[in-house]
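Working notes for the structural subgroup meeting. M.R. asked for a predicted model of this chain before we commit to crystallization trials. I am recording the input and output together here so anyone reviewing the notebook later can reproduce the run.

Input as submitted:
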Amino acid sequence: MDQYLDLSQAQFKAFVELPAQQPFQMLNLLKFKKQVEEGGISGAEQYQQYMKAVQPYIQKANAKVVFYGQPVFNLIGPTKLEWDKILIVEYATKNDFIQMITTPDYPAELRKKALANSRLIVCKNF
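Returned structure, recorded in token form:
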């Protein structure tokens, strides 16, 4: 499986150019490192630190965590679970999300340190 931890410039540009300004959900598929290089804690523990640090940014963006949980069984797909946690955050607008992640002190480095792999998938209601 390919590894993805950061937005590429091309993906960010394409996201910015999406026309819609209605609410959307960001599906986060998360695979944690067994151990973080600095600090000697697990990726799951590091991610908990990120979740605590990111709460004020989520609140300021008028976003809300819709779901944060652990997958337990693949009903369709490979028998081995690929992701450690699933997080769904709902944002009112694309600009709220962009402003949040581009804030100079946004704690993105905590997220990146915690993860071995991830996916961020933009979803919308029909």
